[in-house]
Amino acid sequence: MANLQSTFIGIKSPNPFWLASAPPTDKEYNVVRAFQAGWGGVVWKTLGSEGPPVVNVNGPRYGAIWGADRRLLGLNNIELITDRPLEINLQEIKRVKRAWKDRALVISLMVPCDEESWKDILKRLEDTEADGVELNFGCPHGMAERGMGSAVGQVPEYIEMVTRWVKKYSRMPCIVKLTPNITDVRKPAEAAKRGGADAVSLINTINSITSVNLDTFAPEPTIDGKGSHGGYCGPAVKPIALHMVADIARSEATRGLPISGIGGVTTWRDAAEFMALGAGNVQVCTAAMTYGFKVVQEMISGLSQFMDEKGLSSTADLVGRAVPNVTDWQYLNLNYVTKAVIDQDACIKCGRCYAACEDTSHQAIAMSNDRTFTVKEEECVACNLCIDVCPVTNCITMRELPLGEVDKRTGRKVGTYANWTTHPNNPAARAAE
Amino acid sequence: MTNSPLTPGVASGRLAPDEYALNFADIAPRFAPHEARVAADRCYFCHDAPCMTACPTTIDIPLFIRQIATGTPEAAAKTIFSQNILGGMCARVCPTETLCEEACVREAAEGKPVEIGRLQRYATDSLMEKGVHPFTRAKASGKTVAVVGAGPAGLAAAHRLAMKGHAVTVYDARAKAGGLNEFGIASYKAPGSFAADEVAWLMKIGGIRVETGKAIGKGLTLDALRKEFDAVLLAVGLAGVNALRAEGEALKNVVNAVDFIAELRQQPDRARLKVGRDVVVIGGGMTAVDAAVQSKLLGAENVTIAYRRGREKMSASPYEQELAASKGVRILHNVAPVRVTGEGAAQEVELAYTEEGPGGLKLSAQTFRLKADQVMKAIGQTLSGTPEGLRIEGAKIAVTGAGRTSVAGVWAAGDCAQGGEDLTVTAVAEGRDAAEDIHASLAG
Predict the structure, then answer these.
(1) pTM of the entire structure?
(2) Which of A298, A310, A345 to mutate to test the interface with B (most CBs of B within 10 A)?
(3) Of these residues, A139, A174, A386, A395, which one is catalytic?
(4) Of B4, B179, B332, B364, whose CB count within 10 A is highest?
C-alpha cells in the first residue's frame, strides 16, 4: 500500500485529506470524530476577534441542487464564521492538537482589516500549538458586507498588506485562502506571495443562488420570504476550482507557491486530479457534509491503489504531474486530427449522438433505416459532442489519424506539430515574417 | 441423446448437450463494469448502515460499494475480504434477499434494494481473477492449530489463524477441501471450478497445510489432536442425514438430496447424471430447492417438493421458492410422506395431509399418491461422529463466547456449533471469530 504521508509547507499529516474550514470543523467534538475516521488534518472553522459572538440566521442556511436520484451535486450556504466564543475555541484547539499530534491542525482566521486586530488574534493563538493559520479572504456573504472575507480577497493590495501583518506577528506557516469571485485568480495569488504567504488555498465558495421557489418567488434557502446570495460548493464547482488551481500552478509569477486544493473533492479521483494540477494536498467539506466523515476511507484506499498502480511512492511524486500539460490554446497542435468511431456492437441505437450532431454540430453522423449510426469522416471535426452525450461508456471513441493519412474533411494529409502561432491564417504570425 | 424427459425410471442423458449447458449456466452472471457503476450509484452510503448490521460477517457494504463507484473494485474487494475471506462464494450463495438486501433502505423505500450480492461478486471477482491475494502473513508465532473440516468455517478460521502467523493443519474427510462450497451448492450458483479456485486463492496466505481423507474417527482422535497442537477447532459441519421414518425408505432410488447435489457438483458432464422421470423431494429448505431445481434442469419431467408444513414455515427463502416455481417445480405444502412403494425400486410415494394442532403436527387420514421413480430426502442434516467428552446442546456442539467448547483448547464453529443460522456466511463469521479467540488465547 502506497505511503500517503503528506508534508505541506512543513505541516505533516498521515494523508493529504484535510477538512476545510467549515461546519465540520466547528468544534472539538466534530474534529475528534473526523480524526477517528481517518482525516489527515483540519482547518478549524474561522475564528473572529474577541467580542460578542457572530450571529447566524435562524432559518435554513443551506440550499442545494440534486441529480434525478437526489444525489447532491451542489450546495450553497449563508452561514457565517464561528458563532462560538473565541476562548472556548482556543481551549478546544489546544486540547485536540495535544491529543492528535500526528494530524494537521490549522486555524482559519478572519478579523477586521486593521493591524491591531490581526496582531491581537495572532497573539491569542500562540499558546494553542496549532500547525498554522489560514486567512479567510474568501467568504462571499455576511462578513464581506462588514469589510472582511471576500471584501479583502477581491483587493490584491489588502491581501498583501494583511499577509505581511500575519508574517510580522506570527511564526506560524500562513495559508491565504482565495475567493473565486474575481476575474483573474492569479492576481490575488501573486499578492499573497508578495506578502510572504507560505501557501494559498482555493477555491472558497462561489457567489450563487441555487434555486428560486416558484410558489413564493423567493430564492432558496428562504428566510421569512427572502433569500440572499450564498457561497456555492460541492461537486458542481470542481471544474472551476481545477482551472484556478492550474492557473496559479503554471503562472510564472506564482510557480512553486504551494497550493491547498479545494472545491468539490468527493472521491480519491478528484483529489488526485487536484494534486496532479499542482495542489500539495486537498481540503474537503461538502463530501463530508453529505456522506459523513467515513467518506475519507474511500479517498485513502482509492488514492493508495492509484499510486501503487502508477508506481508513485509518495504523494509528492503526484503533485504537479499534469501541470506541464496545461497550456494556452494557441499552443495546441492543429495537426492533431481525430475522427469519431462508433462501436456498432456496443451501440444501443438511442440516436442521441445523431440528434446532437445533426441539430447542433456538423451533420457528421448518418442514420440508416434500421437505426445504424455511422460517422461521416468527411464531415467530422472531432468535436467530441457525440461521445459526451452517448449513454454507453466507450461506445464512441476517437481515432487519431496517423501522420500522412488524408483527412477526408479537409483533403489534407496529417502533418507534424504546428500551432496557431505559425498558422497562415494568423495575422500575428504573418506579421512576424 | 438416448433418453428424453419421458424415459421411465432413473436415467441419464435426458437432454441435448446444449440444453445442459444452458440449464447449468451462471444464474446471475457478473455485472459488466457499466452495470456495476449504475448499481453502485444507487447506494446512499447510509450511516451505521442496516445492510452491514444484517450481514453475519459485518462487511462494510457502503464503503465497498463506494469503492466500486469510484473505479476501485480491487479496494472494494479488500474491504470485503477483510471481514469475509470467502466473500466470493458468499456473493454467489448468500440469501441476500433475507440478509443485506432485505435491510437495504431502498428496499423499504422502493421495494428495490441495491443489488449488494451482485456488486460484491463484481468486486471479489475483479481482484481474484488478477490472482492477487491482498493479505500478508504475520511472522511465524511458533504455535500450531488443527482445524477439522475444510468447509467455510474451517477455511475462514484457517486463513485468519495463518494470517496471525500460526501454523495451521486443516483436515477434511473428503478428497477435496471446500466442504459445502465444493459439494453442497447448486451448480448454477457457482459454476465451473470456482469453489476449488477460491480455496487455492485463500491458501496463498501461506502457513496452511491441508490433509484430506481424514476426520475424527477416520485416522484422527480429538485426544491426539489436543496433544499434538496448541489448539483445535472443530468445523465438521453436519455429516449425518435425517431419516424419512416412512415405510419403503430402503427402496432403490430413495436417496439423500445432499448426495445427489454433491454428485452433480463433481460431474462436469451433466449428460452422465441420472435423474428420475418423476422426482419427489421431501423437505422445505434450501437443499430441497437445490435438489428439485437441478432435477428439473437435468430433464426430469415432473418434480415435486413435498413439505410437511405451510409456506410461511419453509426455510427456503421466497426467492428460492420462486426460482423453483419458475423452473417448473411444483411445491406442495402441508403434506408428509407415509410410505414409498415400488417393486424393488421406488415407483410411488404416498403422502398424507398434515394438520398443525396444539399437540404438534398430525397426519390426517386423507392420503394421496404421486408417481415417484426417484425420492430425495432433504429433511435436514445432523451432527455425527462427535468426539466424546464434548457437551452437546440442541443436537449441536455447545459453545460459549467465540466458539469455546466444554473442552479446554477446543473450539467449534460453523453448522456443527450451537448458535446462528446454517448459512455459509454465518459459518465464515463463526470460523473467523473463533480464530480470533484462539489467537488471543495463544498469545495470552
Answers:
(1) 0.93
(2) A298
(3) A139
(4) B179
